[in-house]
Amino acid sequence: MSTRIHIKGGHLIDPTNDIDAVTDLWIADGKVQSIAKAPDGFTADQTINAEQQIVCPGLIDLSARIREPGQEHKATIASETTAAAKAGITTLVCPPDTQPVIDSPAIVELIHLKAREAGMSHLHMLGALTCNLGGELISEMHSLKEAGVLGMSNANQPVPNSLILGRAFEYAATHDLTVFIRPDDNGLSDNGCVHESALSSRLGLPGIPEAAETVAVARHLELIEQTGVRAHFSQLSTARAANMIARARHDGLKVTADVAIHHLYLTDIDIRDYNSACHLIPPLRSERDRDGLRDALKQGVIDAICSDHQPHDPDAKQAPFPDTEPGMSGLDTLLPLVKRLADEKLLSLSEAIDRVTRLPANILGLDQGHLSVGANADICIFDPDMSWGVSSDTLNSAGHNTPFIGWEMHGRATRTLVNGQLIFSTDHD
Amino acid sequence: MSSVKTQAQPTQPVKLRPGNIQLDQQGKLRHFLAIEGLPKTVLTQILDTAESFTASEEKKFELLKGHTIANLFFEPSTRTRTTFELAAKRLSADVLNINISASSSSKGETLLDMLRNLEAMHVDMFVVRHGSSGAAHFIANHVPKHVSVLNAGDGSHEHPTQAMLDMFTIRQHKPDFPSLRVAIVGDIMHSRVARSQIHALNTLGVGELRVIAPQTLLPAGIDKMGVQVYQDMDAGIKDVDVVIMLRLQRERMHGAFIPSEHEYFKLYGMTEARLALAKPNAIVMHPGPINRGVEMDSAVADGSHSVILQQVSNGIAVRMAAMAMAMRNPDGSSAS
């Protein structure tokens, strides 16, 4: 039985429909029924008072590790889809490097089943581009697509042979699948753990040069052009790579790109005395890179922003820096950090929201990320002024590994709707 | 001449963090993890303290009687571990030698568990050698206030006692650092010794500091560490007062850092003919162990300019100084 909901008095931001105003929203049958004017004869089962709040499409996160199956001691589908819901994120996309790898329909079904059982945010997947991410045999992409994957990716694993990579692209193109590429030349990154710079040299930490990303972007761009596959670059970390994407787009190649939100705020300086919370892959890079990525975002060269969520158990980060596991927990801080881009006047709030709603939906080929009449009612309501300190007590993800611990955030979700159901609320109205 | 000098004046390294875990609130040495971040006064105090030990008629001191020092070596070492052990014994401390092979980590015991166990045995100081950069910092961040940590080499980061014994040896021969021209030759990229030496020499105000190596053995941004970069050995060694040769790991050709030991020696090996380009009274140093015929000729290693064996004996006094200065009382106050 579906709930009929009236969201009242909120500031509605829907970039797709160019709405940025205080107005009401009516929901029934899991869909948006009307905006601004109540549908005839609508009687709400539930009225949500959204005064002083922003009402926008639920956030869509292009990259979030859920750790299940395989590493349930770090996080589970239930824990992370719940954390996402509490952070205003209504759709998560999980890369294929679970254990076992998402390279068979059975794993896709298992994850879908668990996500349905949890009943919180939507969980989508990318399928493995090659079997077991081994880089040698192409996966059963057609079967994976039928099972519901939204695209193909080899996650952080290399495909050393360019012939195989090209064939994988061709096969993906055959089945109208987007390939998601986290550009890294495995030889150049060479087990590095931080950005290669004077700082990495001083700390004695093995560096990952800028070229590890740019060489990979160049190689992939050539094969994308040759094969005609639809492609998306994930988590760019260097300004030069963003420039290469800009040039390729200028030359007519239809590629998209995203950036992890923390790369817009942090640099390798934040590693300081071996802060393992800053052990990330791709690594935090220079100030020049951070500024270049911000610029590329503003110019639209980088389309979307993701959390690159990678929750860990505490032990994974309790060791000498190079021996810790890379990645940070990012779901809880995605919304306030995206909003902060507007506070810092890099983007308008509507533009910032666009980068985590409409644009990622387009990249995924999903008819989501907007509040048109008839659209799925996946909605984030947040208090833009609510300030909260990031600490173990305030994080909802099972992973508390974030370099933003101690930061003051402004903005937090107060209610989240998925398919027109209120799945999270900070109060009971 | 094919010497490659970096364009700009070397810039002073930026200090990492003002709140320094190496110093206590009185500014005294608390842990000895890295040269970087320590003020000149502390470095000079280490040298002076070491000198007081070498100048003394006594061989054994009661300074650390009742204290327990654990040598925690995650990497094999003979020389460094032995001199630390000897230093601790000459200060009358009880010494525990623990060599941890890679296999113990496969037992699933984390580094923190191991530390907790050792602390339960009332160890007062850890001397740590570890293959991962930052390991000594990590341990220092996780010990109680009465336990101090001495870094005996972490990854490619620092090896501060080695650098201080080198400074001590230089000072014995050439006490006026501002007038000195020093060259460090070889595998700077992988060398924790070189990083510590660079910081120590700059902190002590050396006149000119050069590094000499092919580009493949120079770390990124080396020119921002207060050094002049040379790729030509003959140009780099000209008129220097001190030459510090670094050890070349014999397997470096496998990572395509150098083509062969033969070509490396031809270009960067120290021979008597090359040494003649330096100042007539120049000293030649090496942290050991030497690959004869790879880094230097035996004629140089055993020749009159070589101070390599003095470095080894000075290692004991310098490590005694660092131990005595860093040791804590049970309430966390300085024991020295």
Biggest sheet details of chain A: 6 strands, mixed
Number of helices of chain A: 12
Which CATH top level class of the largest domain in chain A fits? Answer: Alpha Beta
Q: Approximately how much beta-strand content do the residues of chain A carry?
A: 15-25%
CATH superfamily of the largest domain in chain A: Metal-dependent hydrolases
The CATH superfamily of the largest domain in chain B bears the name Aspartate/ornithine carbamoyltransferase
Strand count of chain B: 9
| Terminal residue distance of chain B | 53 Å
Intertermini distance of chain A? 19 Å
Q: Output the CATH class name of the largest domain in chain B.
A: Alpha Beta
Q: Are there runs of chain B of 5+ residues with pLDDT below 50, and where?
A: 1-18
The percent of residues in helical segments of chain B reads 25-40%
Characterize the largest beta sheet of chain B: strand count, sense, and whether it forms a barrel: 5 strands, parallel
Protein model, in words:
The complex is a heterodimer of chains A (429) and B (336). Chain A is of the alpha/beta class and 429 residues long. Chain A folds into 2 domains: 5-55 and 376-388 and 407-425, Urease, subunit C, domain 1, CATH 2.30.40.10; 59-364, TIM Barrel, CATH 3.20.20. Chain A is built from 12 helices and 21 strands. In chain A, the strands form 5 sheets. A 6-stranded mixed β-sheet of chain A has the order 3-2-7-19-20-21. Chain A is globular. Chain B is an alpha/beta fold and 336 residues long. Chain B has 2 domains: 40-158 and 315-326, Aspartate/ornithine carbamoyltransferase (Rossmann fold, 3-Layer(aba) Sandwich); 160-313, Rossmann fold (3-Layer(aba) Sandwich). Helices cover 34% and strands 13% of the residues of chain B. Chain B is built from 12 helices and 9 strands. In chain B, the strands form 2 sheets. Chain B has a 5-stranded parallel β-sheet with strand order 7-6-5-8-9. Chain B has a 4-stranded parallel β-sheet with strand order 2-1-3-4. In chain B, helix 7 (192-203) links the parallel strand 5 (181-185) and strand 6 (208-212). The longest helix of chain B is centred in the C-terminal third of the chain and has 19 residues, at 308-326. The N and C termini of chain B lie far apart (53 Å). Chains A and B meet through helix 6 of A and helix 5 of B.
